[in-house]
Amino acid sequence: MRFLVMLALLASALPAQAMMYKWVDAHGKTHYSDTLPPQALGRGNVELDKQGLAIKRNDGALTAEQRQQQAQAQARKTQEDFALTERKRRDSALLNTYTSPAEIDLARDRNMEQARLIIKSNDARLISLRATRAQLAQQIAGITRNQKPPPAHLTQARDANAAEIARLEQLQAQKNKEMDETRAKFDADKARYIELTQGARPQ
Questions:
Q1: From the CB of residue 189, how many other CB atoms can be counted at a distance below 10 Å?
Q2: pLDDT tier at 113 (50, 70, 90 boundaries)?
Q3: This prediction's pTM
Q4: Which of 63, 98, 132, 168 has the fewest CB within 10 Å, making it most exposed?
Q5: How many helices (H) and strands (E) does the chain have?
Q6: What residues form DSSP beta bridges with 31?
């Protein structure tokens, strides 16, 4: 009751167009005044009309944590906006490139054909290299059974054979990975195309 009386007295003493400020100091104490003192600057306050009703809320200066949260929220929004724009661009390109899911399957097969040919060629080469490896191992084993060191040309051939097998096996793994990625990309494009074409094509 005392607070309401003081507020009414303060309000009645102000000119007709005047207003009051309600603000909280660093110790959590609430103040009312017709002007903002220096210690209130940078802190949040509420503007009150002559009847003591809030007419405007002024936020105080942001803390370091609040500024960080605000920056993070803005960064998330920027990323979301970019993702949405990029998704629309990809959707438009998808609809303008293909006229049916079957066309996407054909494009996938064309993109994978070169990798298939390389894998097939390397498979044949690996069969030959592994046969040679077995022959070299047999020759070297026959010599070492007689407690003789294998000749240099055999060990060099064995090492070169092993290096070539390792190189081709690594290449095969790389090509198989490329094929898996290509297949996954076109499968995703096909699924998205079907999803988009269930409704109206965007203009």
A1: 19
A2: very high
A3: 0.58
A4: 63
A5: 4, 4
A6: 23
